[in-house]
Design brief:
Layout (H helix, E strand, L loop, with lengths): L8 H19 L4 E2 L1 H8 L3 H9 L11 E2 H11 L6 E6 L3 H8 L8 E8 L8 E2 L2 E5 L3 H8 L3 E4 L3 H11 L6 E4 L12 E4 L2 H8 L5
Parallel strand pairs: 3-4, 3-7, 4-6, 7-8, 8-9
Antiparallel strand pairs: 1-2, 5-6
Helix pairs in contact: 1-4, 2-3
């Protein structure tokens, strides 16, 4: 079951943005930052940043700002990013292969260790040293390797069926690239990624 919390989901969604901005500033040589500076970088009000952080305790000192390295460390712990999360991907077409080959996951604590597809011609193929298994082996593989996160890169027509098949496994979080709004039980955490929706939300601001 997902972790119960009084922290609003929108706050949790902002924490990775804070870590990314802080990490960039640290790489630029900055060691201390104020909520005003961080807010300007992310287009978030300083008051919102202070409120977000207050859910997790006290950080920094009034008038002195935050020590960037310490704040990154604390936010990393809060999000559980101080460990490796083994993940799997379902659907190894062009998008799925691109995701498997993406080098940005491992440095951030996520490692794809299993891949599944329902196309017999792909079974047994290796992508970035990961063997593609039959979709029928999802449950046994997830159980054996204790995988908690699944990435879906399947057609919309079968996405719901795949998600339903994951309900009775150890999968607790799903990152869905299929352009649908699937139904999931309360025991699963779902995040949908759809660039079309993002584009549609931007056209409101365009002439």
């Amino acid at each position: 079951m997902p972790k119960e919390s009084i922290v609003p989901e929108v706050v949790i969604l902002r924490l990775p943005l804070y870590i990314r901005a802080l990490s960039q500033m640290l790489s630029e040589g900055q060691t201390v930052i104020s909520s005003n500076e961080l807010g300007n970088r992310l287009q978030v009000t300083p008051a919102q940043i202070r409120k977000d952080l207050s859910y997790f305790g006290r950080f920094g000192k009034q008038g002195r700002g935050y020590k960037i390295e310490s704040l990154i460390e604390e936010l990393t712990k809060i999000l559980g990013l101080n460990r490796q999360w083994d993940s799997c991907i379902v659907g190894v077409g062009r998008l799925g292969k691109a995701i498997i080959n993406y080098p940005g996951f491992v440095p951030e604590g996520f490692k794809i260790i299993a891949a599944f597809d329902n196309d017999p011609s792909k079974i047994g193929e290796n992508v970035n040293e990961i063997e593609i298994l039959s979709i029928k082996k999802i449950k046994s593989t997830v159980e054996k390797k204790n995988i908690k996160i699944a990435i879906l890169a399947v057609p919309a027509s079968i996405a719901q069926d795949v998600i339903t098949s994951l309900v009775d496994t150890k999968i607790k979080a799903i990152l869905n690239y299929a352009p649908i709004a699937p139904k999931v039980p309360d025991t699963l955490i779902l995040r949908n990624i759809d660039p079309v929706l993002s584009l549609q939300s931007m056209t409101y601001y365009l002439d």
